[in-house]
Amino acid sequence: MKILMLSWEFPPRIVGGISPHVYNLSLELSKLGVDVCVLTCDFPGSPAFETIEGVKIYRVDSYKFPAPDFTSWVFMMNTNMKISAGNIVTANEKEISLIHAHDWLVADTAIGLKHILRKPLVTTLHSTEYGRRNGINSDYQRLIHETEKWLSYESWRVICCSNYMASHVHAVLNIPNNKLEVIPNGIDAKEFNYVYDRAGFRKRFVNSTEKLVLFTGRLVHEKGVLVLIDAITTVLRDIDAKFIIVGAGYLKDEINRRVSEMGISDKVYLTGFIDDETSKKLFMIADVCVVPSLYEPFGIVALEAMAAKTPVVVSQVGGLVEIVEHDQTGVIVYQNNSESLAWGIKRVLTDERYADRIRLNAFRRVSEEYDWSCIAKKTLRFYEKILTEYEENDWKPL
Q1: What are the CA-CA distances from residue 362 to residues 76, 189, 244, 332 (Å)?
Q2: What is the CATH number of the domain that holds 47?
Q3: Phi, psi at residue 315, to the nearest 5°?
Q4: What crossing angle do the helices spanning 163-173 and 139-154 adopt, rounded to 10°?
Q5: Are residues 363 and 377 part of one domain?
Q6: Beta bridge partners of 55
Q7: What pLDDT is stored for residue 396 in this prediction?
Q8: CA separation for the pair 269, 205 (Å, rounded)
Q9: Are residues 207 and 247 in the same domain?
Q10: Which of 173, 186, 249, 355 is surrounded by the fewest CB atoms within 10 Å?
Q11: Are 19 and 163 found together in one domain?
């Protein structure tokens, strides 16, 4: 079986959760004997072609032609991707069995290849524009929304990372339920199992008396970071804590302004973007990790914290409530409610026995249910099912 994976981001280009998802899934599929080719964007210092543990990585020059805005850049990126895809197909002796696209940014390439190669197209929708924006409010958002609908319509099947996401895609993009497949994201818990000077590393972020509260994610509205900012003063009334906020996004200046006005600048540290190793180390030393999302199709940050044996406090939204069981593997609080979030944080930080119980339960769950090897096996069985269906339909569109 030969799979052509299309993704606009792949390590070391990491914009969101798609990059680690495609990386880990590709490598685990390769271990199962699948011939995987990944077509993605270039990144400074990275080779145009390389092989990583059997996975062939092709990086496209995404800045070959000038683009005045992001939409134009996406269009030109797809133009270059299609050219590169043609070269990949002709250069490889083994025929492509199936095309697997990740999100709307590669829609044009994916759909074009589907019709040229007459091969089944599968798409993983990691989120929707409607969900990210809480509705469609501009022509720019409508363009992305309609592209998602087009890609979903052209796909033989659409993979969603949670039951919540599947119901959301069904309602928002009008995709039939029998065309949707739920395969969750995965995690490699072994990545959080190495020895380093935790005490020395911790001193870089907090003093000896402070608890470390960690938020990691894009600094955008749907991630709920402003809800966390509003909860800080309530937490500080009872607990000496430092809030470490990892990530970048358009809300950075707003966060800094609010923190300054609240007089808590010494209790909040915005790290900006950090490398993967530093991120993992932070998960491992945090006293609690908060995921206060307003919209969350899955919640990979919660999985990462659970794999690092760190207690999690998550909002009652989307895929998060499918990962976390309240009072068993974490704490679930009300969505968009800073008082509830503050309560959840204090619940963990003031009861060590409770925190130990939920974090160890959570670690067992991610190890048993969300390991990437398990996810890859589910994906391979899904590929085999699709190829059988496609052949039985005599290569006709669904």
Answers
A1: 43, 11, 22, 13
A2: 3.40.50.2000
A3: -80, 155
A4: 110
A5: no
A6: 52
A7: 52
A8: 8
A9: yes
A10: 249
A11: yes
Instruction: Indicate the average pLDDT of the chain.
Output: 92
Q: Which are the contacts of 274, defined by CB distance < 8 A and separation ≥ 6?
A: 246, 282
Looking at the DSSP bridge assignments, the partners of residue 241 are 211
Amino acid, res. 9? E
Q: Which has more confidence, 95 or 346? A: 346
**pLDDT (tens digit, 9 = 90+) per residue, 38-52?**
999 999 999 999 999
- The parent domain of residue 278 ranges over 189-369
- Give me the residue label for tokens 């402070």: 210
CA-based R_g, the chain, Å: 22
220 assigned to some structural domain: yes
Tokens linked to 98 = 């199936």
Q: Give tens-digit pLDDT for 217-254.
A: 989 998 999 999 999 999 999 999 999 999 999 999 99
Whether 394 shows a pLDDT value over 70: the answer reads no
For residue 397, being part of any structural domain is answered with: no
Peptide bond into 12 cis (omega under 30): yes
In a domain? residue 398: no
| Burial class (CB within 10 angstroms; exposed 0-12, middle 13-18, buried 19+) of 309 | middle
- Regarding whether 30 and 14 lie in a shared domain, the answer is yes
Cβ neighbours of residue 255 under 8 Å, at least 6 residues apart?
219, 225, 226, 229, 245, 268, 270
| Residues forming beta bridges with residue 56, ordered by sequence position | 37, 51
Under the banding of pLDDT at 50, 70 and 90, the label for residue 24 is very high
- The pair of structure tokens assigned to 216 is 């990691």
Q: Is residue 124 part of a domain?
A: yes
Terminal Cα distance for the chain, rounded: 21
Amino acid (1-letter code) at residue 268: V
**Long-range contacts of residues 54-63, Cβ cutoff 8 Å, at least 24 apart:** 54/27, 54/30, 55/26, 55/27, 55/30, 57/10, 58/84, 58/88, 59/10, 60/84
> Which stretch of DSSP H or E encloses residue 315?
strand 312-315
54 and 175 fall within a common domain = yes
Q: What is the mean pLDDT of residues 115-140?
A: 92
pLDDT tens, residue by residue, 169-188? 999 999 999 999 999 989 88
Number of domains in the chain: 2
Cα–Cα dist 165/143, whole Å: 20
168 & 228 share domain? no
Do 238 and 179 lie in one domain? The reply is: no
337-348 residues labelled b (16+ CB within 10 A) or e (exposed): bbebbbbbbbbb
φ/ψ of 96, rounded to 5, equals -65, 130
Q: State whether 196 and 318 are in the same domain.
A: yes
